[in-house]
Amino acid sequence: MSATSSMRSVDDHLADILRTVRVLAPLELDVEQVLGTTLAEEIVSPVALPPFDNSAMDGYAVRAKDVGRVPVTLPVLGDVAAGGGGRFTVVPGTVTRIMTGAPMPEGADAVVPVEWTDGGTEQVTINRPVPEGHAIRRAGEDVVPGEVVLPTGTLIGPAQLGILAGVGRRRVLVRPRPRVVVISTGAELAEPGTPLAPGQIWESNSYTLVAAVREAGSEGYRAGVVADDARLFLDQLDAQLLRADVVITSGGVSMGAYEPVKEALAPLGTVRFDRVAMQPGMPQGFGVVGEDQTPIFALPGNPVSSFVSFMVFVRPALRKMRGLPAGPTPTVRAVTTSPLRSPEGRRSYLRAVLADDGSVAPVRGQGSHQLAALATANALIVVPEDATELPEGATVEVIRL
Ligand SMILES: Nc1nc2c(c(=O)[nH]1)N[C@H]1C(S)=C(S)[C@@H](COP(=O)(O)OP(=O)(O)OC[C@H]3O[C@@H](n4cnc5c(N)ncnc54)[C@H](O)[C@@H]3O)O[C@H]1N2
Ligand code: MOO
């Protein structure tokens, strides 16, 4: 039996995760809260946009016929400002001043920009002719009443938020951003900013993971660090389940004498622990816990391993929960600048720098504990299971970080 025969493939593990996690139920939220959520309704505009014909420029509302021969001097009836202002009828031989966004007055059929005039307020001399319709934004040219401006499933970014507000929506039915709680475990972990006792290190995984959660469009929360005690871990988990759509743990899943996460979760029968054929990130736990069958990712404690595991397994799951197309984390192609090595039968994710010219170079320090080396990388080179060596100049798939 080979060393890798008892391992589960990355693809099988991910498929199991994506089968298990569910799209979050829709929720009605205030428009202020919906950035990064996914629409669970179709947004139909109740009005036309623009709602009325209005000026695209600061200038004068005219009848185009009156300015056919220039220069011409005409009386100014008054001002039409955006948001109301005077109501005028532009009869032949007259004009009004008009500001950008102000409704076109009756009778006018074009706007002359102020730059083409002497800027007069009682009367104005116009120096250039304009065709009918010049600098007028027509009612409904962006949206007609009853038009679908955003389909169900749209991811709300800044522009989408703008059109929601632009069609007057205050409440919106969306798939919310998943709430993800990160619990780090380990007796050796001290909070950054506190002194280290002998044998301790500063806790970093929860910072990395919460940041990665947020970057992946979800809400990340750090729960307090739990020492190596299965009972304490279960208490913390119970408390956190109240606010979590997903739980991520780091540490305590390998083969040591003190593996609180595995000890606590394995007996439940709803979380499986596997050795996944990847490097880093081999020990993995995944399943559901609690009344609501909340998905839980028990990631390995090595800092690089937990981060890579997030990119490969958690990120796609969060996409599915948000109602977005979910599958393996997307890759781009690149060409290696040096030979690469990878363990047989395992998919490697080598920390690397991807350059603008499409070349990719592994960083120095590929150990699962080498957090500083990870911090110099902007990509992961994916070396397939069946490759143990790749020459310089090989084309590889790369995950951008
Ligand atoms: N006999 C074996 N030992 C190990 C195996 C194995 O198969 N047999 N697998 C190794 C691999 S691969 C990994 S990955 C790690 C996973 O270990 P755990 O998930 O149990 O994690 P810990 O033992 O708690 O920690 C591992 C390492 O990472 C540091 N760590 C943990 N949490 C944090 C944190 N929040 N911030 C910063 N650093 C953290 C911890 O101090 C350890 O150095 O197991 C190998 N061993
Ligand atoms: O598989 Mo562990 O995740 O390398 O260091």
From TrEMBL:
Enzyme class, spelled out: transferase
Catalytically driven reaction(s): adenylyl-molybdopterin + molybdate = Mo-molybdopterin + AMP + H(+)
Biological process annotations from GO: Mo-molybdopterin cofactor biosynthetic process
Keywords: Magnesium, Metal-binding, Molybdenum, Molybdenum cofactor biosynthesis, Transferase
Gene Ontology molecular function, alphabetical: metal ion binding; molybdopterin molybdotransferase activity
EC number: 2.10.1.1
Required cofactor(s): Mg(2+)
Residue ranges of domain MoaB/Mog in the record: 181-320
Keyword field contains Transferase: yes
Segments crossing the lipid bilayer: none
Cross-referenced SUPFAM superfamilies: MoeA C-terminal domain-like (SSF63867), MoeA N-terminal region -like (SSF63882), Molybdenum cofactor biosynthesis proteins (SSF53218)
This protein's GO CC annotations: cytosol
SMART domains: MoCF_biosynth
Coiled-coil spans in chain: none
Pathway membership: Cofactor biosynthesis; molybdopterin biosynthesis
Entries under NCBIfam families matching the protein: Glp_gephyrin, molyb_syn
Family per record: Belongs to the MoeA family.
Function, in words: Catalyzes the insertion of molybdate into adenylated molybdopterin with the concomitant release of AMP.
Protein name: Molybdopterin molybdenumtransferase
